[in-house]
Amino acid sequence: MTTFTIEYKTLQELEIFIKNNHFKDKQNILVQIFTSINEKKYILELIKNILLYLPNAKIIGSTTCGEISNSGSINDSTVISFSIFKNTLLKTNLVTYCKSSFNTGKELINSFDSLENDNLKLLIAFSDGLNTNGEEFLNGISSINDKITISGGMAGDNSKFEKTFVFTQDEITSKGAAAVALYNKDLNIYTDYSFNWETVGKKHIVEKSIKNRVYKIAGMTTVEFYQYYLGNDIGRLLPAIGIEFPLVIKRDGINIARAVLSKHDDGSLSFAGNIEEGSEVQFGHGDVQMIINKGLDNIKNIIEQPVESIFIYSCMARRALLQNDINLEILPLKELAPISGFFTYGEFYHTKESNISNNQLLNQTMTILAISENNNTIESITPNIFSKNPSQVDDINLHRTQALSILIEKTTKELEELNKNLEQRVNTEVAKNIEKDAILQVVQTQAQLGEMLEMIIHQWRQPLSAITSSVSSTQVYKETGLLTDDLLTNSLDNIMKYSDHLTTTIEDFRNLFKVDHTITTISLIDLIEKSLSIITPLIESEKIKVIKEFDSDSKVSVPVGLLMQVILNIVKNAIDILVENKIKEPIIKFKTYIKKDRIVIKILDNGGGIPKDIIKKIFNKKFTTKGDTHGTGIGLDMSKTIIENKIGGKLTVNNVKEWAVFNIKIPI
C-alpha cells in the first residue's frame, strides 16, 4: 500500500496531484478527509469533486480542531490522504443517531456484511463530537464484534462546540457515525498511544452521574466544581476550556481522562465518555516533558513493525497545551511513513492484553494507527531523528510550559505525601483517642459497678443481720433448752423470708445489667418504685427524704433495665451532692406527668443546684466534679446516650433556685 497526502486548496491543484501520483485508475482507494471548514455545502462539494476523478474511491471524513499532514499540525485547512491498497477490500457505511450511542455503535457494525469473515481486520470510525457518548458507542460495536480493531475519533469544530460533521462518499451527518471496514486477514496493524497527563490536586468523589453526564462532585454541581477550583472565568468558558482540564479516573490501574463536551442549564456537564457515580476523579494537566519524550518512544516501537502508512488521531487538548511545539511529537513519525490525521474531541484506541481485545475511548491522548500490507519492517531510518532530544529545542515558550508542568508535578507529589502523612497522623491520634475512650469507658463501668456494689451492700446489710440474729437466737434457745417447735418454725420462716429478699435483690441487679435490652411495657410508677427499691437502703442510711408526686401512671414501652440505670445514676449523684454539701434536710423528689406526646419524669434534689460554670458540661463524657476519693459520679454522659439514642427521648438539666432538676422525656 501507498499513502499520498495533500493540503487541499483548489480543485485544479487536486487534479494535478492525482494525475502526478498515478492512482486515478486504482480500484482500492481509501480517502480520508480532515477539515476545519465546518460547512456542509463545502464538504459535499469536495466529495463530489473527488469522486469526479476517483469514482471508485471509498471516502470517510470528519470535521476537526486542526489537521495533521506531512507538514505537521496545521489550522483552518483541509487535509486529504489517499491510501492505495493492493490486497485489501474497503467498505464504508454511515448511520445516524439511533436512540442511544450504544445502539448507534451496534447499528454501524451491523451495517457491514460478512461480520464472521476472518478477513475483516480493521474499522476506522469517526463519530460526531457533541451528541455521541464515545464510550457507549464503542461498547455497542463490541457487543456485536469484540475482536475487531477500532481506530479513529470524535469529530471537532475548532472548539466552538456547536456542530460537527462525519461523512462518507454517500452521506453526511451531524449526529451519528461513519466508518470504513478493511478486509484483509494479512493486513499488519499496529496501534499505540501517548497520554502523559498528570493528575493535579486531591481526589474528589462523583456523587451523582448518569453515564457521561455528571451532576454533582464533592457537594457541588459540576460547573460549580470547575468554577471553585479553576475560577469563574473557566466556568463561563465551559465547555470549550474544559477539554484542556479533563477529569482523570483510574481504571484497571490506568489513568483515563474524560473531556468536557457540553454544559447544561442545571449545572451538569456531559463528558466524552462515562464517569461512574462513586468514582474518584482528579483534574488533569499535561506533562510537557513526558509528552515530547514519549514521541521518541513511539518511534522506537514502530521501527520494529511493518509500516507503510501512519494515521494520527490526537486530542485537541494536546495541541492547545503545546501549541506549535505539538510538532515535536508529530513530525518525527513522518520519517517512518507518510502521516495524516486530525485533532479530535476523543480518540478510539485498541489494545490487546492477556489475549483479550479491548477498544477504549481515550481523551488527551495521541493515538497512532500504523498499517502495512507487507511484512517488511523499517530497515533504515534517518539518523537525525534521535540525534537531538526534542526537550533540548531552544524555545522559550516550550521551556516555560515545561517548567510549569514540572512545578505542578513536584508540588502535587509533595502535597500528596503531606496529605498521606497527615492522614497517618490523624489515624494515629484517632487510635489514641479511641484507646483513651475505651479506658474511660472501663473506668466509668467500674465506677458504676462500684456504686452498684455499694447499693447491694446496703440492701443486704439488714436481711443478713436479721438472718444472723435468727440463727443466733435459735442456738441460744436450743442450748438453754427453751427451743420449742413454734420458736423453731418462726425462726426458720424469718430466715426464708430474708433469704427470698436477698434472692429478689440480686435478681433485680442482674436484670438491671442484662445485655438483652428487650422493650417491655411497664407502669411508670412501678418502674420508679422498682428503681428506688434498689437504692432505698442507701437513701435511708443518709436520712434523705423521698417525695413522690405522681400525676401520671401511664404505661411506657422501654428497655426497663437501661431506664432504671439512668434513674439510679441520677439518684446516686443526688445522694452524693446532698451528703457532700451537708444539707440539713436533704430531699429527693420525683414528679411524673404527660406533656403533649411525651411522658416526663423529673428527678429533683435540694443540694444547692448545679453551678452555672459547669451545667453546660455536665453531660460531657470526660467531665466530672468528683475526685479520686469517690471514684464514682461518672455516667451522666451514658445516661444521656441511653435516653436519646436507645430510647429516643430527651435528657436535660436545669436549676430551680436551690434545686437541681433532671428532666427525662420519653415518647408515648
Descriptive overview:
- It is a single chain.
- With 668 residues, the chain is of the alpha+beta class.
- It has 3 domains: 2-195 and 289-393, no CATH class; 197-286, no CATH class; 514-667, 2-Layer Sandwich (Heat Shock Protein 90), CATH 3.30.565.10.
- Helices cover 37% and strands 31% of the residues.
- Strands 14, 15, 16, 17, 18, 19, 20 and 21 form an 8-stranded antiparallel β-sheet that branches. A 6-stranded mixed β-sheet has the order 1-6-2-3-10-11, covered by helices on one side. The protein has a 6-stranded mixed β-sheet with strand order 5-4-23-22-26-13.
- Helix 10 (396-479) packs antiparallel against helix 11 (485-512), helix 10 packs across helix 12 (524-541) and helix 12 packs parallel to helix 13 (560-580).
- The chain is rod-shaped and about 145 Å long.
The low-pLDDT segments are: 386-393, 627-634
Main pleated sheet: 8 strands, antiparallel
Distance between the termini: 88 Å
The number of helices is 14
Secondary-structure-based class equals: alpha+beta
- The helicity comes to 25-40%
Q: How many E-type strands?
A: 33
Q: Please tell me what the overall shape is.
A: rod-shaped
Residue fraction in strands = 25-35%
Radius of gyration of CA atoms, rounded to a whole number: 42 Å
The pLDDT mean sits at 82
What's the number of domains? Answer: 3
